[in-house]
From TrEMBL:
Membrane spanning residue stretches: 303-325, 369-394, 406-428, 440-464, 470-492, 522-543, 549-570, 582-604
Family from the record: Belongs to the nonaspanin (TM9SF) (TC 9.A.2) family.
Species lineage: Eukaryota, Metazoa, Chordata, Craniata, Vertebrata
Main location: membrane
The protein's name: Transmembrane 9 superfamily member
Source species of the chain: Crocodylus porosus
PANTHER family reported for this sequence: TRANSMEMBRANE 9 SUPERFAMILY MEMBER 3, TRANSMEMBRANE 9 SUPERFAMILY PROTEIN
Length: 620
């Protein structure tokens, strides 16, 4: 949900500026003030708090020759029956995928984004939470805000991603109609007792911000501010909305926070709002373009760092490729001279170089069941990453709440045959016999890791009463996806992989007796290679090719996770058990998935390279 949440670091704070510092017309909070504690500095008057949109939408609640012949017929019938069962399984899995996708892309009439004059426009209140802890969010009305008098409208999670990301839309109760201006109007009154004042003071001390939606466009605001001495606390009570329209569509929304009122116990605070409609030239299709503008969120693209990294990769790839090509050319030249010798001279000579391990390099790996499951999962993660990136570039997923996560879940389920195919075929080529167990491990390896982490963090979220707590129904839905979509499709891929590419096709035979491994230098040991491989993900060829090639590339994830500690302590101002658990828990999931993907790519590349060089050499 890229643009539907507040941006990273302290960027959006420059857009959430209190009105007292902006000629009584600013929206949002300044990052400098947030960093200081309670003040709010103001940007130029034209910089107002902006809003974006989201995908999930809110819907109104609404024996003998005869025996031989019979046996042959029975065998043919058995094959035909198995073929029909496989086809039925495929159809069932496809139907399950379709059922999974339909709720992810559901639309209601309310969400056509077209309005008639005087038609109701709903203002949804989403979440509120500390500015520095982006994932620690709570329902808007968990703070003692009052609600408008208009009849309530219920909202349900329309997409799975919306539910998993803690979107909690609640009706504001404000009466807003299309193209109908509203002067400053009091919509409710807060009877501020000591408990409510303490709640607001706590929120202001922790720089709480809130999010609202109009026509799927998000608006951000700040709860209040403290004076310079931190003794008195003030609540923003006046929401000044300015809505831009083009024809019968809403294309822009800005919020100005005004009406700073001091929090004094046993007083009444009136909450008010106003709506100003302005004609805009912005096209409906372009209404999210301002959120992609770096000047809006003040995102700085580090072009020099990107170029530097790109050139470093090109240099390293070219350097390693040149060294390998020179070495291989020399080896090929020596081996070609041997082919010109007669059989007597060839038998008297000893094999040398990488040719002498040709009988062991394709030996099955230790623990082939786990290894093949990791390779299959890595190939699936790579496919999911590639497809989601392409879809995000084409479909503008940032415009819809939870759509990025929903799309990733759907694509992961749809690409389960990739996992089964590569994992199952590799396990079969390595002589594995417990293919059903391998299929189960491959299918549930990533879901179990993600769900286990989410389950642990969910306990903390429930304790904090945070909106990130995953509902029980959503957990059941995720489990159903795993058992009724991912598992059957993984089974289909495993069967296809075993039948289409499960036969060993090594370019040279594997010796029955393993060749003794000569003693190596300390820096050639697999443990050292694995550690160094994460820094420069290039490896060499060893007799234990499989695990070394996998772990050398996968160790990149270790350095990524180590950097996350540096980023947490020196680049952010996160605090608290919930945010810390959320950050390090899901960073561990991300790093593990990255390691599995990189490891699978490393193994596949190494395997293709080794096969190529041994195919080009004549081996008796």
């Amino acid at each position: 949900m890229r643009r539907t949440s507040i941006p990273q670091s302290h960027r959006l704070a420059a857009r959430l500026v209190p009105a007292s510092r902006r000629r009584r017309g600013a929206s949002g909070v300044c990052p400098d003030d947030v960093a200081r504690g309670a003040e709010a500095a103001s940007p130029p008057p034209q910089r107002r708090q902006r809003r974006g949109a989201g995908p999930g939408r809110a819907r109104q609640s609404g024996g003998g020759a005869g025996g031989a012949g019979a046996g042959a017929c029975s065998l043919a019938a058995g094959k035909a029956r198995r073929g029909m069962e496989l086809s039925q399984l495929l159809c069932a899995a496809s139907a399950a995928l379709l059922l999974l996708w339909l709720p992810l892309r559901a639309r209601a009439d309310e969400h056509e984004h077209t309005y008639q004059d005087k038609e109701e426009v709903v203002l949804w209140m989403n979440t509120v939470g500390p500015y520095h802890n982006r994932q620690e969010t709570y329902k808007y009305f968990s703070l003692p805000f009052c609600v408008g008098s208009k009849k309530s409208i219920s909202h349900y999670h329309e997409t799975l991603g919306e539910a998993l990301q803690g979107v909690e839309l609640e009706f504001s109760g404000l009466d807003i109609k299309f193209k109908d201006d509203v002067m400053q109007t009091t919509y409710c009154e807060i009877d501020l007792d000591k408990a409510k004042r303490d709640a607001f003071v706590y929120a202001i001390k922790n720089h709480y911000w809130y999010q609202m939606y109009i026509d799927d466009l998000p608006i951000w605001g700040i709860v209040g501010e403290a004076d310079e001495n931190g003794e008195d606390y003030y609540l923003w009570t006046y929401k000044k909305l300015e809505i831009g329209y083009n024809g019968n569509r809403i294309v822009d929304v800005n919020l100005t926070s005004e009406g700073k009122v001091k929090l004094v116990p046993n007083t009444k605070i009136q909450m008010s709002y106003s709506v100003k409609w302005k004609k805009s030239d912005v096209k409906f299709e372009d209404r999210f373009d301002k959120y992609l503008d770096p000047s809006f969120f003040q995102h700085r693209i580090h072009w020099f760092s990107i170029f530097n990294s790109f050139m470093m990769v090109i240099f390293l790839v070219g350097l390693v490729s040149m060294i390998l090509m020179r070495t291989l050319r020399k080896d090929y030249a020596r081996y070609s001279k041997e082919e010109e010798m007669d059989d007597m001279d060839r038998d008297l000579g000893d094999e040398y170089g990488w040719k002498q391990v040709h009988g062991d390099v394709f030996r099955p790996s230790s623990h082939p069941l786990i290894f093949s499951s990791l390779i299959g999962s890595g190939c699936q993660i790579f496919a999911v990453s590639l497809i989601v990136i392409v879809v995000a570039m084409i479909e503008d997923l940032y415009t819809e709440r939870g759509s990025m996560l929903s799309t990733a879940i759907f694509v992961y389920a749809a690409t389960s045959p990739v996992n089964g195919y590569f994992g199952g075929s590799l396990y079969a080529r390595q002589g594995g016999r417990r293919w059903i167990k391998q299929m189960f491990i491959g299918a549930f390896l990533i879901p179990a890791m993600v769900c286990g982490t989410a389950f642990f963090i969910n306990f903390i979220a429930i304790y904090y009463h945070a909106s990130r707590a995953i509902p029980f129904g959503t957990m059941v839905a995720v489990c159903c996806i795993c058992f009724f979509v991912i598992l059957p499709l993984n089974l289909v891929g495993t069967i296809l992989g075993r039948n289409l590419s499960g036969q060993p096709n090594f370019p040279c035979r594997v010796n029955a007796v393993p060749r003794p491994i000569p003693e190596k230098k300390w820096f050639m040991e697999p443990a050292v290679i694995v550690c160094l491989g994460g820094i420069l993900p290039f490896g060499s060829i060893f007799i234990e090719m499989q695990w070394t090639s996998f772990l050398s590339a996968a160790s990149t994830a270790i350095y990524v996770y180590m950097y996350s500690f540096y980023y947490y302590f020196f680049k952010t101002k996160m605090y608290g058990l919930f945010q810390t658990s959320f950050y390090f828990g899901y960073m561990a999931v991300f790093s593990t998935a990255l390691g599995i993907m990189c490891g699978a790519i490393g193994y596949m590349g190494t395997s293709a390279f080794v096969r190529k060089i041994y195919t080009n050499v004549k081996i008796d």
